[in-house]
Each structure stands twice: as structure tokens, then as C-alpha cells.
Amino acid sequence: GLPLLDPVGALQLRDPEAVEAAARARALGASLGAFRCVHSPHFPQQYAQFAARQELLEQLEHLQFLLSDQSLLLLPEYHQRVAVGAPR
């Protein structure tokens, strides 16, 4: 594949968290080939199922927030903002 861009060197990142995240991403990428599962002929299908499940879980979490007390507490502020921005 294409060589990966070094975010620390090429983008001049100085934020310690960004530098640490880039180092972790490099280490994880280097160790990926050691996992047997990625060499399975079923991996693409299994990964697609896993990704779809994760997406559904994220949607569920978002919907649960929308139904939560915290979200309902923000509802009056939302209606006020909509009323202020509405054409007269």
C-alpha cells in the first residue's frame, strides 16, 4: 500500500496527546499482521457485521441520550433558540 504519513514529522504536531496517539497508532498498525483473524477468509464479512453492530450501538446510545432526563432538561433552551431564529 501507500506509505503512511508521519503526523508528528510531516504535520509538525507538538501536542503531547497527538504525538502519543500517533505513536500508539503506529504500534497498533505494526502489530496488526500478527493477528491471525485478519488472515481468515471470513474476516471481511465478520468485520462488516462487527462494524454494523457498533454503529447500531452508537445509534442506540444517542437515542437513549435523547430520551434521557439530561436531554429533556436541554429542551426548553432548544425551543428558545428556535424561537429566536424563526422568521417573523
Automatic annotation (TrEMBL):
A GO molecular function term, named singly, is: helicase activity
Record flagged with keyword Nucleotide-binding: yes
InterPro entries per UniProt: Beta-barrel_MTR4
This protein is called what? SKIV2 Helicase
Give the superkingdom in one word: Eukaryota
Domain named Exosome RNA helicase MTR4-like beta-barrel is located at 1-69
Q: Keywords in alphabetical order, please.
A: ATP-binding, Helicase, Hydrolase, Nucleotide-binding
* Keyword ATP-binding set for record: yes
User: What Pfam families does the entry give?
Assistant: MTR4_beta-barrel
